[in-house]
Each structure stands twice: as structure tokens, then as C-alpha cells.
Design a protein that fits this description.
The complex is a heterodimer of chains A (190) and B (985). Chain A is α+β, with helices and mostly antiparallel strands and 190 residues long. Chain A contains 4 helices and 11 strands, in the order βββαβββαββαβββα. Chain B is an alpha+beta fold and 985 residues long. In chain B, strand 49 and strand 50 form a beta hairpin. The longest helix of chain B is centred in the middle third of the chain and has 18 residues. The chains are: A alpha+beta (190), B alpha+beta (985). At the A-B interface, strand 7 and helix 4 of A face strand 8, strand 15, strand 31, strand 39 and helix 19 of B.
Chain lengths: 190, 985
Amino acid sequence: MHKLKPITPLGGTEPKVDSFPGLTITENPTRALASLSARLGHESDCATKARDLIGVDLPGPGQTAAGQTYSAIWIGPDSWMIDADHASHEILAAELKAAVGDTASVVEQTDGWCRFDVSGPAVCDLFERLCNVDIRAMQAGTATRCSIHHIGCYLWCHEAGTAFSVLGLRSSAGSLHHGLVEIAQAVCTA
Amino acid sequence: MNSQTNRLNGGLVDQGQSLSFTFDGKRYQGHPGDTLASALLANGVRLMGRSFKYHRPRGVLTSGSEEPNALVELRSGGRQEPNTRATVAELYDGLQANSQNRWPSLKRDVLSVNDLFSNFLTAGFYYKTFMWPKAFWEKLYEPIIRNAAGLGRVSGEDDPDAYDKGFLHCDLLVIGAGPAGLMAALTAGRAGARVILADEDFVLGGRLNAESFELGGMAGSDWAAQAVAELSAMDNVRLLPRTTVIGAFDHGIYGAVERVADHLPTPAEGQPRQIMWRIYSKRALLCAGAMERPIAFANNDRPGIMMAGAVRAYANRWAVTPHQQVAVFTNNDDGHRTAADLIAKGVQVSAVIDTRADAPAVEGAELFAGAQVIGSKGRLGLETVTIRTAQGFTRDIICGGLAVSGGWNPNVHLTCHQRGRPQWDENLAAFVPGETLPVGMSVAGAAAGAMSTHGAVQTGAEGAIAALGDLGITAKAGDLPQAEDAPVNLQPFWHVSEGKGRAWLDQQNDVTVKDVKLAHQENYVSVEHLKRYTTLGMATDQGKTSNMGGLAVMAEMTGKSIPETGTTIFRPPYTPVPMGTLAGRAVGRHFHPVRQTPSHKWATEHGAVFTEVGDWLRAQWFPQPGETHWRQSVDREVLQTRASVGVCDVTTLGKIDVQGADAAAFLNKIYANGFAKLAVGKVRYGLMLREDGIAYDDGTAARLAEDHFVVTTTTANAVLVYRQMEFARQCLWPDLDVQLISTTEAWAQYAVAGPNSRALLEKIVDDVDLSSEAFPFMACAEITVCGGCRARLFRISFSGELAYEIAVPTRYGDALMRRLMEAGEEFDVVPYGTEALGVMRIEKGHAAGNEMNGTTTALNLGMGRMVSKKKDCVGNTLSERDGLNMADALRLVGFKPVDANETVAAGGHLMNADGPVDAAHDQGYVTSAAYSPVLQSSIGIGYLKNGAERMGEVLRLANPLEGSEVKVEVVSAHFVDPEGGRQRA
């Protein structure tokens, strides 16, 4: 094990948790990410090999797919973000590359992003003041790109109406967190 | 005890509870449910403001958001809000309001002297009078006019409150919660559609709360309350009271302002004062109702003269009358309702003056059919009106209130926000929505010209059914509640010709019938010209009560019909929106998001001074104890780096991962210079051109594998270059197998520069041979550091020293910075910021954004040969344009002052040693300059005509802005180590 001690996107040694009546915002640095983009002409091979690794079909536009270990978010034509536990899959990109070979390009994206898990009954009240997504209509297992607090984000719905993750630029974690918390204070009244 | 002399019984106010408030410092009582206007009227206060231009005493005209007169300053300090309509300001305990545009007091206003000079202050007065001398306008005339005229004032203090923005989605947006809107929402809500019902009022129901007639066998207000209760219980319906839909925008998007906390002394902790909602609707049904219009007559602006529908609303909803004696002046049956309702409430109705000869009979008041009001009297408030009877006699009627009705105008505003034009309805003598409506919008109720309550509920239900039908949602037409269905019975009548004194059309802007006639006389006959020339329909109310009157007078003058005369353009917002609501949360330091570098925490701990580079915060320099000037810090950082080793966070530079079988071919087309043959494990400097041949961005590309490159860009252009590359990939060469993704954020990257950089890094890396033989200049490799942390190492140099850039996953960036500083202690390692970075690159003659400024070419940069002619690339052909390849083209060179004590200023222009100093003799300009602690002199780089051939020449560097002129010598731009031996060491 190397000697470099990681910090979270918000700069702490432990993830930050903010609780409000009806809402919890948790910084989540425990996920590894890698992008997967099919090479031209190898799209179906890529899909097959990725399915062999993940255990489920790669999702279509607006969708995500969850396997036992890995999840996938559609991020563009023939492109996905693959997600796995960081502690056990820090070198997710290498694992993925080994699985898909020359059928796809794989890029480590883990630390390109900060992730906040937002849950509770007030979650729709929160996001309807943060982004133009039809948050109340968003179904579990869907994800979309949006702008929150002027920051390009992915919004990932785990449970309709109650549990979402928002992924934004890691360098702007502080601003994104500020944006989430100030609106949480506005929508969560005791 | 009870000072509310004009409070009646009943109403929708809670007369069991009292609220205390002040107006101009005097304390009054009102009740929950009151507006400031209703509470003032209850207390016998009719005078509420002074007019814009003539400072005439004015009272409240309406009971709604269209109010032109009763504008007050609400609250104080940072929360002071000017031009608040007293008619929509909800009363709360402790409310503090002040009248505006008067001095020293509302009752005794010195500037009311303006009124005596009204003959000189007519339309166009400013344009005619203050034309010369020209210089007087800004210094003299404008300040005087601004002081004399105008509305409320802002306190100048920061607004302490927050404002939110939000986004809502629905199948059907119903705008307005009167009988039509409530019926529409009920119909759509019962069908299961996602419905939003927005209304500007704090009590939903619209005119149902203001009228005395029944709906569905119960009081209108009870029916409204019952409908609201049913809607509130539906999960698929969202009620937005206190929410004004301010504009209809593209694709069914509506803007709406919700006043969350305006009815409270201060917003609750964490709550915004207002929310600007963007509503994405599949369909919208406009149920905005109608607005009553006045009839202009001489001195029709006296406090106490009000709209008849407003007087009725005050009586029925707020249990208030403007006076115990009220007369009615009308041209239609609706005015008679006011008389009847007032009589029922025990108010004495002195007379009903109806312009129609066949006016219906009135019970309980004297009727003057075929009569007109030709004047009014009363200081600071109405005392009598003078009428001309049908028989030609004049008669004075004693009254402290006059309820005027000239008919009703459907609220077509939102139907016109996409440039639709309303159409004329002869029966109503009013404009109704035209055929071209914003996409997805339909109109119901009075807004559509259905003026009865039955018409409202019927068209509301039908409108909802039709709108949902378009969406494939079946809604059922339930039984409509029983409602009055009186026809509109009106004889158009716009202004009384007879009478001494001015007849006011636009009370907010002090525009009279005579002003419109003058505009006509001076040929400002187009309605848009009429508006600008007279100011009719400008300012906070945008002529809601006045435009029609103005149009009618203009039509009369031109001999055209009103529809031929036309209306001015309706534009959002429907009612005024505070600036704070438009800004939302993006204020102060949250105006834009901040991007922090991986070493931000460390840099903060070490006292870094930060600078903004786009959204990034970068350390600019690191002051040490004893350093009192930034130059001391920067000079030290430069000297120590060049003497030993320095570390700089360069994470902000864009990093784009380029992969695919055609990655090399792709980069060969993107960059001006060749990349196809770059060996794996090597880095190359690359220059990108724009399509027009101008230099775009520069950086490096490192080849990590045959099919894998990492491209770096400048910090400022990271997004632009990525976007340009995506465009090229998707649109220019879709047949190439290339995949792109940004990794800027994913890696923390540090420049480690200086003669001891290798020695320092050797302590960090895991078993990597860093010797020049094994890892030469421009090498790159994927390695591990600090006992196994994956990393990328590049041997590149911006400073001109032996240098590397080392990258680790961002989460380890903070730790790596600490480790580098710890390991570098023995070398006296120094962190350096962007300022030292800039000094060193200028000393080295490296181009940056100042040099690639959007006007310069590879040739100008001295990189003409890099534009390979063996291949094509973006910008290659157009870089060959004659104009970009003149014999005396600008060339990047260096400059030193002849006198070492003088300063080379960036931005200065170069002139020959002799001759004129002007644009015609311009020889070039200095793009970047710095003090070089190495050379102990100010230095600069910049562009000089035919510069490469002019080494040693002395020029004048002119800085006319600061009035300086410095003699400079043309030198090579490579001040330090021109042979490049150090970076290859």
C-alpha cells in the first residue's frame, strides 16, 4: 500500500454528511468510475464483453443498469460510465480494459467527479430548485445530464422520489455542496 | 377607539384579530386578510402618493396588481422596497410603509408646484426644452429632472434575503384561479393530469371573492374555498398562490414569480423571499380574467376616484368603503353592481351617473341616465363631482368616493408574448386574444371574452378538456355549478370632452387626453411612437389601466377605428420583478462556481494569495514572513526554482484523453504539426489553428500507447478545445475511430522544475530511472510513486529548466504536494504560483494567451514552419492567405529597456526611434512583460513588424494611456538559456 493519504472532494479525511428534516446529503468518495466507449465498428463486441463482466446489458439513453459488482450509466452514443466500489476496484479502468480489449476505449474517471448521495422525502423539493429535470417523474434506474449551480452534473435516480446521486466536477465539489445545502435549508423546514 | 371608520361588516378579513402597521410614521390597525390599500382605506386614508411628474395627490385606483397610483416604499434598510403596490402588499403586524416622491410630506409636497407649470411640462417637454446647450444635459438638466420626478428610492444597502430559482413540469398550467381557472384545474385534476394552478393573489378565487353573486348555490368565495380544498387534496395538482406568471416563453415554458415571504416581516430562517419558477408545460390555459378600464374626465385623479370593480371588491372582500358616500359613473351594467353591493353593505350611494340614455333603473340611489361627470373637487381627496345631466344642466353631487366603470378589458397580455396580436371584439368594445397564441396555450373565462361567471366556469372546463385531449388524457365534463350569466351591456365611452382641468389617462405617468392630442398634432400617431413620446403606458404598471384610453383618443384624432390604431407590444414581465429574483442565488462570491486545485488546501495553509483563472482559483504566489510586496515573493520563487527546484500545481491545464485506432490520424488533423510518427513514450509540443488559419491553442500530446494519447490544453481553452475536438470527431471525420473524454479533474498534476527536480523526484518515484538516457527531455511514462500509487510522469518544461510534470489520481494530490515539499526540504524546494510561472515563461519566450490572442498566426509566433505542408490540418489552407504572410509580418521578439531602470509595459505600442507616434507608424506591440529577477531588468515579449530581422534595433515603446515613452532594444524572446541546454540536462 502506498503512502499517499487520500482526501475527499470536499477536502476532508471523512465524507461530509449534512442532515436536514426530510433530507440527507452524503459525500460519497467510495465509488470508482471508468468511461467505456465502443470503438468504431466494434459496438456489439463491446456490448457483449461488457455484459460478460457486468452481468447485465449496457443501458440505453437515459438509463442505467446495475449488476452485482458494477453499474453502468449511459452517457452518450455507445458510451457509458461504469461504477464499482473503490476499495475493491480502485483500478476499475484496468479491469474494464482487460475485459473489453480493443473493442472499446476505457478511461479512468474516478477522481474526475465528486458524488453526493441525496435521500429523503424532500429530495424532489430540493432538486426542483436546482435543475430543470422533471425530478418527480424520474424513475429508479434512470440518469440524466443537467446543470446544477452552473456545474455540469449527472443526476442518477436510485429510488423514485427519495434517493438520488448527483455527480459533478470534483474541483467544484465545494460549490456544488454549497448549492445543495443552501437549497436544503430552504426546502427542509422542521 | 376604532379608527377604522370606513370598515364595513363581513368580508374575508378576520375582523376578530388586529394587525398594527405604520404609514408615513403614523400607526394604524388592520386585519389579517387586508392589503395595505384596504387597511388604509378602512382607516379613512385615501391619499397614498404623489404623481410622477406633477406631484398631484393620488389615491388608490384599483384593488389589484394593475395599480398605477398607490405605490409605496415598503420596509426599511436593506429590505426597503420601492414602488410596491399597496393593493398587493399583504398586511402583516408591524408593516412599515412610506409614501414616495414627495417632500417634506405627503400632504404638503413642495414639488406640487410643478402642477402650476403643467402647460410647460406637456408631452415631449424634455426633448423640446433641454436640447441645448448640449453639455448641460448630463451635468445640469438630468440631475434636476431626476430629483424632481421619479418614483421610489432604494436604500443602497445590500438586500439580506435570498431568492431561489426553480423548475416545474406539468401537463396543464392554469394561469389564474378565478372561476375559469378553478373549474379548469378541477376538471384536469379529477382526470389525473399533472396540473399547476398559479394565481398572483394570496387568496385563490379571483372575482369570486369580490362579487356578491352566488356560484353553485353558495357564496362565490365559499365555492372557491371548496374548490381549493378539493384541489389541495390532489397529489397531481400543485397550487401556487402568490405566484404571478410573468411571461410566456418558447416551447410552453412560462416564467412565474412566487412571493414566498413578502407577506411576512422577514423570511423564515433559510427561506427565500421569492422564487422564480420556470414552468415547463405541455399545455397552458390562460384564465387571467379581465381588468376594468376608467373613463377619463376633468380632474379624474382625485383620491377617492376608483374603479367600480375595485370599490366592489373592497366592499365585499375586505369590508371597506373608500367613503361613506360614494357615487358611481359608468357606461355599462357592471357599474350598477357596485351601486347595489354598496347599498347592501349600508354605504350611501349619492348617485349613479350612466352615460347611456337607456340605463337600467337603480334601486336605492338616484340615477342620472345619459349624464356625464365633467369635473371633481376636493383638496387631497374627493368631495364633490360635477355632472352634466342628459337635460344639459350641471349639478354637483356630494361624494367622497366615485366608482368608475368604462367596461372590462380581457387580460390578453400573455397571449401576445410571442408577438401574437389581439383582435377587436365589437360587443365588448375590447381586445380579445387573437388567433395566433403561444404554442400550447389556450384561453378561457373573461380573458377569452366570456364575461359572465357561467361563461367562465363553462369555458374553463371546456378549455381543460380540450387541452388534455391533445395530450391523450380524457377528462370528463362534470355538472357545471349554477352561475349568473348576465350579458355584457355596454356603450363604449372613453373620455368626457367637457370640463375644466386635465383628464388623466395614465395616472402613473401623468399623461392626459391633451397629451395624446398633442402627440397626434406633432405626428406621433403610431401607438409605439405615442407611447415613447408621451410615456403613456410606461413604468411599473405598463399602462394596464391606461393604454386603452390612449388608443381610443388617438383613434378619435386620426379618424381610425381602435383596432386600426392597434396596441403596443406586450412584453414580459407582466408585473415588475425584483432584481434579486432575477439574480437568484448567483450573487456575490457565488456568482459562479469555484474550481479548486488538488493542492488548494495545502496552499491555503501556506498563505497563498489566490487568483481567478476562469472558475479556477490558483495560487498566485506564496508570501513568506518579511515579504511586504508581491514582487519579493515572486522574485524569490523564480530565483529559487531556477537555482534549485520549485513545485507548481498545473492541474488546471486541460487534459483530454484521446483513444482509438485512428487517434494519431485524428491528432494529425487537429494539430498544425505532425503527430503520426510520435513514438510511444514521447511527448510533443503541438499548435492548433482555427479554421481561418489563426493560432488557436497550444499544448502537448503524450503518446501513452499506439492508440492512446493525452492532450493538454491551456487552462483558459480547456473546454473550447475539447468542444472543438468533439465537433471534429462527430461532424468533420465521423469515419475515424476516435474516442475523447476530459480527464482534467481526474489527475492532480504538478510541475517540478529546476536543476534539482530530478533529484527530488528520484525520492518519490518507485524504481524509475530518471537519467536523461533512460528518461530524456519530452519522455513520458505511466509509473508508480510513493510505494505504489499509480502516476503519470512527463518530462516537459514551461520554465526552461530541467523539469517534469507528475500526475496522480486527484484524491492523492494533496498528499503528493505534501510529500514533494517534505522530500524537497533538503533542496530548499519552493512552491511557486502563477506569477512566477508567468515570469519564467516570459524569460523563456514561451507564448501564452497574451500571444495567442485571436489575431496572430503560427508565422507571427515564429512557428511558421510547424504548419506542416505534408498533411492537411484544421486551418492549414487559410493560414496561407496573402494577408497573413506579408514580408513585414509581425514576429514574436523580446524587448529590454535601454535604461535598465525603466519598465517595459505590456500593451504599449512600438514606434521607430524617430518619426511620428501614431497608428499609421505603428511597428507592433508588447504582449507580455515582467520583471526578470534573473536579468534584474524589466523585460517583455511582443510582436514587431519583420521582428526577426531587427535584433539590436532601438525603438520607442509608447504608452499613451499613461503618457510614457520608453526606449527599448529588440532582443531574442529567449532571455534565459536560449540554447535550451537546461531543459535537456
